[in-house]
Design goal:
Blueprint: H1 8-11, H2 16-28, H3 35-48, E1 52-56, H4 59-69, E2 77-81, H5 86-94, E3 98-102, E4 123-127, H6 138-147, E5 151-155, E6 163-164, E7 175-179, E8 193-197, H7 200-209, E9 214-216, E10 219-220, H8 231-241, H9 244-263, E11 269-270, E12 278-279, E13 285-289, H10 292-301, H11 331-339, E14 340-343, H12 351-366
Parallel strand pairs: 2-3, 2-4, 4-5, 5-7
Antiparallel strand pairs: 1-8, 6-12, 7-8, 9-10, 11-13, 13-14
Helix pairs in contact: 2-8, 3-8, 4-5, 9-12
The chain binds pyridoxal-5'-phosphate.
Length: 367
Amino acid sequence: MKIRYNYLSQEFENTKNIFFEWKKLIKTTDFTLGHKVEEFEKKIGKFLNIKYIISTNNGTDALKLSLKSIGIKNGDEVITVCNSFYASAGAIVALGARPVFIDCDDRFQMNYNLISNAINNKTKAIMPVHWGGASPDMDKITKIAKKYNLKVIEDACMGIGGNILGKSPGSFGDISAFSMHPLKSLNVMGDGGFVGTNNKSIFNWLKKYRNHGMIDRDRISFWGENFRLQPLQAVVALNQLKKLKKVIKIRNNNAKYLDKQLSALYPNVKIPPRPRGFKETFALYMANFSKRNELRSYLLKRGVETKIHYPIPLHLQKASKKFNYKKKDFPVAEKQSKSLITIPVHQYLDMKHMQYISNLIRKFYEK
Ligand SMILES: Cc1ncc(COP(=O)(O)O)c(C=O)c1O
């Protein structure tokens, strides 16, 4: 059996609806912002229960815009996790600020107990990441932020379709960033993203800043930039949004089955705890495995592709040298980076695939 990690050829096998909508859009020549972008912003805001959405050309720009909108600048510090995609820290660095890393917990999420120690007089914000499509304890994090008068920017780039005790990732903090990169739960045919906020004045500023600071064609109120989502991608996003609930349901079913089978293989396999009421998107199904590299080769030889997110934590990347971190600074993330594997549980897989994967893993440890 062949189980591929990347499912995009299946996802976009049937493009009839998208092409139909593209043809209609092309006739209107609404190519910069316009009615399709507005329709997407309205619908995704409703889906996430976030008042204001500003779509952008990718998730990294959504993060940069979020940071900028709350005034993050040169010399400021933003607390974030050391186990994330490069963009979480990269967006902070792009604004001239310093990412201050903290360790994660056994769920691969920000360990809120470590936040207070990382705060000093340069700290302006906390950026929790909904890593892998699971979520940190946002209630605890927002309470700490309130105590120290800090802003919360959620990196919810992997969080679209998740749910924490009835609320969407990205609806807890002052502002949040989402990605619609091709391998996210809501994906476009290229790059796409958006910012979400319930704060009207942040929204008004962002809406202008995304589009050169323009009031209208002839006037600007301040110097802005161009961060606009392409309307062709807004059409794709609207099409994908219709399928999102089903996608999340399939991924959750697949993950549940794997959790059950693999937890019997403890201590060779360590599944992260899944707190009650936290529904994940399973952008990444991650667990820790002994003999990680041998297991990955064993699976690959039998047709199962896997990934590692990521083998080197952010603080140990060459790019972080100037921040003076060293090995053992964040022991939990460092240990996990040596044993974690991401297993495909996407919407084009079902129980027979999950059975195949879990049987292989069991056989590997029985050898
Ligand atoms: C946690 C996280 N933050 C930020 C990003 C950046 O998003 P994008 O690739 O759309 O720029 C990604 C996705 O790749 C991500 O997974």
